[in-house]
Amino acid sequence: MELLQRKEIWNITYTHALGETASWFFVQLRDNKKLYGRRDAKSGRVLVPPRAFSDQTLEPTTEWVEVGPGGQIETFTIVYEAFQNLPPPPYAFGFVMLDGADTAIGGFFRGLDLSDPEKAAEKLSVGTRVMTTFAEERIGDISDFWFELD
Amino acid sequence: MSLKRKTAVIGTAILAQPGDDPRSLEELLYDVVQDALRDADLTIEDIDGIVVGSNDQFDGRAISIMAASGSVGGVDRDILSTPSASEHALVMATLRIASGLYETHLIVSWSTTEASSLSEAQRLGADPYFHRRLPLDENAGTALQANVMASSVPGLNDLAAKLAANTRSNGARTRSSVSLKGGALGKLPYPLTDEMVTAPVTGAVAMVIASEDYVAENNLTGVAWINGMGWATETGYLGDRNLNEALALEVARDRAYGEAGLTSPLTQIDVAELTDVSPYQELMVSDVLGLSARADWETDVASGLFSADSNLPVNPSGGVLCFNPVFCTGLIRIAEAANQIRGCAGKHQVSGAKTALAHAASGFAMMYQCVLILGAEPTGEIA
Amino acid sequence: MKAPRVGIIGIGQSVFTRRRDDASYPDLVREAVVLAMTQCGLDFDAIDGTVYSLSPDAMVGIGNAERLGVDAVGGRYKPFLRINTGGATGISSVAAAYYHVASGACDVVLTAGADKVGECGDSQTVLNKIWDPIYERPLPQGTITMLAMSGVRYQQKYGMTQEDMARVVVKNRYHASLNSNAHLRKEVTVEDVMASRHISWPIKLMDCCPQSSGGGAMVLASEAFIKANKLDAVWITGVGHCSETYYLGDRMGKGQLADHADAYALSKSIRRSYQMAGITNPQKEIDVAELYAPFSNTEFHSIEAAGLAEIGTAVPQLNEGRYTIGGDIPVNPSGGTLCTNAIAVTAMIRVAEVALQVWGKAGAHQVKGAQRGVASGNGGDHQFFGTMIVES
User: Fold this and answer.
1) What ipTM did this prediction achieve?
2) Whole domain around residue A52: which residue ranges?
3) Which residues of B touch A (CB under 8 A)?
4) Which of B279, B359, C29, C301 has a beta carbon 3.0–4.6 Å from C263's, enabling a disulfide?
5) E strand or H helix at B147, and its extent?
6) Handedness of CA C98, C100, C105, C111 (dihedral sign)
7) pTM value?
């Protein structure tokens, strides 16, 4: 019995509104190489990346707080497998608690040798200090910065 | 089978998002939920459970409940999602309350216009086995049904245009401050015209419902009781259906009317909000729901049966024709009907409305059908 | 109002495999539905409501694919709606079916679905699209990387080696070798797992769930219907859902509700289920658990969240064999999600497997004397958790 197959590709472009809070964050990043969080008045937590409201208290956030550029690694992983439409491996990324923030922001870890997984994992262990590095050409996107070991 | 206890609508909020509005989707949802909670005079702490309804392909998120969850108060809370239709979120929430395990629920639905083409997103709903190569989006489904109807009802196209004009004048009374006409529609499939359907816009709707026990314990007044609720589906393949009838709607109607003890819709209903996917569907729905029989469409439309100042205003809100956040139009009908009962429908309030009919339909050519009867007093079957 | 118990009278599941070129998506749904209906001996006329289980549409490549499943579940002209809570969809669907019955709206409800993850080309591409486009989409985040990061934190907090993770795989593959419906049934050793290639440190290939295709279905009924028709049944006595913040970085800070190392919302969801079912000491009262854990490391915090180990102690207890068939409280005697993952129904299979256990119908992977079990499902970015208690 001949079994047939059909290939279908989903191809839709989305233009997502970032809103005022995220837009301001990305503009500061692009133009001034600075990172900011937003404070939730009720709990006092500085949320990074910033949002207009806290999903824990459901209260609006009230003030901008500059954070980083130093921080510490909260978690990481090192990817060795190639996935369609994702970057060619190996690469390391994870979450960093920037100085002054109460929540961690995601980003790539660059500038280290990833060829030996166990050695690389040791270098990236939780608590390691890192420094934010900014791209020369910035467009107002998470890819405008990454982290390097301090 | 009847529900173990009754549920009432105690708060609503409907938000439109004009083109120059700077809010992100999460911010819009945060606002609509805060509005609904304020309307219900509750905080999120008073909410036992949440059900949301949204469309992944419209939103550009593979699991659209994820980012929304925080904005609607889902953190540390019990939240479900019914992506089949916005009205299904209300159905699910009502069942959860009727089970006795929840006293209150928040229901949220939204529809965005961030996709480069909603038509393209909708076309992904056609099966890849036989029909994906056809330009089958929701307007096309609407048009296919319209043509089937028109082949058995002479003059239907003119009638549809007249009904659309009626609905627009209803809507003109109410939607003043926000520009609700979407972008250019482009060429519509025959026989639809841009007088009959409106371009999609971004919008959101939130509702708060509570059990009869909660209402009694908190001495709440001016609530809208859900006295009857019915929902059903057609089959998925359009070619398997007789598009000149709406059997799923008959099933939904019988359940809702039966529960509410409704025997004479024309005399017992004070106001109706029907999902006017287009005026053709509105007419078919009116027939099945007993508001205007097929043989009477011509005279009924001409006599202004459905207009805002008739005995039975239909779509005093202006319907989908005047505000089309595609995915949540079904839930909006329910919210509008509830507002009529609660006396807070604003400029389009029908005075003295005590019994309201809400009809929600979703999918190609009204595949999913849902009927609710809401009232100022609790009536009908209780277990 | 006392929480009613709702019966499970029929269960159906495919023999899961990577691809099913012999069956379209609706065919797979039908396959499971027929099995479930046959087991309870009812006609479609007896079903008065349907809940459709389907997570990301992109996995099956059809927008609102539940519409094509209407006839597969005999749903034409019946009450019908679809549930999606990501990976937890299957258990959320059973919960939704439970509410249909418990509310009084329906006597007999069918819930079903299927997935063809193996056909999707690359599930991680789809799963990358679950992240918000504002901050996290530009990162190469997927479910594997996300849970690898959880493993890193768990390791740092409580201690866990890659060999410990490998022992979870060994246990579950052994279980799956006894389960004729499971996808990956070949037993492996710790050495095999350690030799498999790194995907996302510390997760290696064999620490990962497969991409499975197949269907699942369950028929639920009210106590009154079951008694009147003298049907055989097992009972859902506890149901709970809870969710965490969407932001991973918020689970790593100060003043956070949850740590990404743990499964806070899962433990809360399970506690709701236990409370409803009247369970106060799970380690004594639970005989079997099917806990959703698509990667080996996540089984540890799931066991702890279910109260089957104190926080941070699951590793040594698993190493001792406590959670293997024959041990104290078998966890994932079916092989679990690690051996079979047809995403839209995986969490439903967790409930189905617990039901089969307490029903005495689990065949070669039967846990002797099991009377009461807990099932869990996870969805989103480790965000939505549905749980259920089933007993005989």
Assistant:
1) 0.94
2) 19-149
3) 22-27, 30, 34, 44, 57, 60, 69-71, 73-76, 114-117, 120-121, 124, 128-129, 132
4) C301
5) helix B138-150
6) negative
7) 0.95
